[in-house]
Amino acid sequence: MRVTMIGGGYVGLVSGACFAQFGMEVAVVEVDERKLSALQQGKIPIFEPGLDTLVAENVAAGRLSFTGNMDEALVGAEVVFIAVGTPTRRGDGHADLTYVYQAVEQVARKLTGYAVIVTKSTVPVGTGRKVAEIMRAARPDLDFDVASNPEFLREGSAIGDFMRPDRVVIGVESERAEAVLRTLYRPLFLIETPIVVTAIETAELIKYAANSFLAMKVTFINEVADLCERVGADVHDVARGMGLDGRIGRKFLHAGPGFGGSCFPKDTLAMARIGQDAGAPQRLVETVVQVNDARKSTMAKRVTTACGGSVRGKKIAVWGLTFKPETDDMRDAPSIPVVSRLVEEGADIHAFDPEGMEAAKPHLPGAVVYETDAIAAVTGADVLVVLTEWNVFRAVSPARLKAVMKGRVIVDLRNIFDPTAMRADGFKYSSIGRAVPDRA
Ligand code: UDX
């Protein structure tokens, strides 16, 4: 089966490479010339574990190719995925669909035979129908179907998420389109992956509802963590005790500095807007957006408080800058407001992130010093702030920290260390939601 993937960004690249691995012939169309030439030279512009080898293998097998020429890529295409960016539109919080519609117009002009046009980008409810209208207006003669097939890929484990998903969601209007998409995902049905076949609008909404619910779960536990600190409870045990209830589930109950990344902030905001426009306000989601924004901007205060009221002139080591580990993505990372605030207040920041330092530079104040490794960052520091839970940080022992740090203050916004051990080693250690007194 011939697949055209429009967009060689995160979603397009991972999905394209995975479909090629399923045995499909995939042409990825990328308009950004720098990105395209990197891809054509075998360089992957994003950090995603396993993606480079998967791409290389499938390119070598002749199943995966990259092109800037949409016309060429559309020849004989049976499925056309639209996987272009849908950033938040400035001013109103809606998803910006400019790139989606541009792609559709080009597809409409160039398609040569029946194809299913599938939106993979996260798009507001109703976009699938609009795509069909654009297609029909441009090519009344053409036989086509429109479908929605949202992705649920987490950065850092995207390939595993694609290959072993909890479910595949497809929104379709015809049996023919359903059959095409079932064929495409056949290897997943062989491992008994559940499939939800539904209307296009429903599929579009599933994506927003799923991401907003997960964002709400994280926000819920973050507020519970604040309460734990006030009442002397341990948020880890609360999360475990709650999460073992099968109706709740254990995942996404890890308290931290607030969610970031390319999806949750954008999707919660968009869902709130969709609800307002439709006259069905999503008040919980609206609150999640507000609570999370407020949380990220108050995290710096925890550092100031731990330092006794001022960070001026203090050397602060920052471990981790990306919005989560195993990615180089800085979009909406909590490190941005935290580090910016600390610099404003006169701190001397020495940061280290295993993958995200280049991506971080445009987002952070120029005064930040980037170090070559975790130990270099923390050497001579008065304070250590943990902002992303990379495994390399967990591996550093309290004894090692004690040997290289000047001060004894640690603000662990990801709860990677054991409070009892840290305190036993003489650290003034603060974390999220674990203000429990040490056991005697
Ligand atoms: C998310 C969704 O999980 C994925 O299905 C979707 O399609 C894209 O968006 P991603 O943004 O890569 O994936 O990261 P995810 O692992 O979901 O984390 C999102 C944010 O929530 C991160 O900032 C993370 O630090 C935070 N988080 C997550 C927590 O603070 N606690 C948790 O328990 C889980």
Automatic annotation (TrEMBL):
UniProt keyword annotation of Oxidoreductase present: yes
Protein name (record): UDP-glucose 6-dehydrogenase
Residues involved in NAD(+) binding: K35, T86, T122, E155, K266, R331
Pfam families per UniProt: UDPG_MGDP_dh, UDPG_MGDP_dh_C, UDPG_MGDP_dh_N
Reactions mediated catalytically: UDP-alpha-D-glucose + 2 NAD(+) + H2O = UDP-alpha-D-glucuronate + 2 NADH + 3 H(+)
Enzyme nomenclature, EC number: 1.1.1.22
Annotated binding of substrate, by residue: F152, L153, R154, E155, K207, F252, L253, H254, A255, G256, G260, K324, D425
Boundaries of every UDP-glucose/GDP-mannose dehydrogenase C-terminal domain copy: 317-419
Biological process, per Gene Ontology: polysaccharide biosynthetic process
GO molecular function, one term: NAD binding
Pathway it works in: Nucleotide-sugar biosynthesis; UDP-alpha-D-glucuronate biosynthesis; UDP-alpha-D-glucuronate from UDP-alpha-D-glucose: step 1/1
Leading EC class: oxidoreductase
Enzyme active site: C263 (nucleophile)
Record-stated family: Belongs to the UDP-glucose/GDP-mannose dehydrogenase family.
UniProt keyword list: NAD, Oxidoreductase
